[in-house]
Amino acid sequence: MEKTTKVENFYMAHPFELRRTVRKWELRMESKYNINLDNPFYDHTRSDIDNLDALKENSKAQKEYFRQRNTPETINRIVDGDLKSIRQSDGLIAYLDKKGIGTPMEIFFAARILHIPVYIITKKFTYHPWIMKYATKIFPHRTAFEQFIKKEFGLKQGL
After folding, report:
1. What's the confidence (pLDDT) of residue 1?
2. Helix and strand element counts for the chain (H, E)
3. What share of residues in the chain are helix, strand, coil (percent, to 5)?
4. Domains in the chain: how many in total?
5. Structural domain range at position 120
6. Which among 7, 13, 38, 157 could bridge 94 via Cys, Cβ 3.0 to 4.6 Å?
7. pTM (2 d.p.)
8. What is the pLDDT of residue 56?
9. What SS3 class is residue 12?
10. What is the DSSP string of 14-71?
11. What percentage of the chain exceeds 70 in pLDDT?
12. What CATH number is associated with residue 82?
């Protein structure tokens, strides 16, 4: 079966704490496969993330930055921007390894409201009823997901 060379666009949902790890993986995936990953931390709020990345993780300075940054205008810009990006995507990929608020809300919005494919990479929440209900497909690790992407969307030309 001939693979299409159409590039699919996916929103990349993940916890803030994993942003650096996910970013490295995301860039490798985009360079290898016929997919584009829209990372809300790095593709939409670049100056904000640069400021946050310059601060020590979970430091007093980082917490103070969040406190000062989180005005109603900033909150609306971030959340509304994420929702707009999800609406413009062909699907959502979620890296879910810890409890949190944002990633599950993005999963719910994509699956329940938009009815677009939701692919979830998780070890911890594989059998959670909400994940089982709203995931199009669940992967226990990134390698399994990459095998799926390779099969479904193919390698970029020349690889």
Report:
1. 44
2. 8, 5
3. 55, 15, 30
4. 1
5. 8-153
6. 13
7. 0.88
8. 84
9. strand
10. --GGGHHHHHHHHHHHHHHBSEEEE-HHHHT-HHHHHHHHTSPTT-HHHHHHHHHH--
11. 94
12. 3.40.50.450
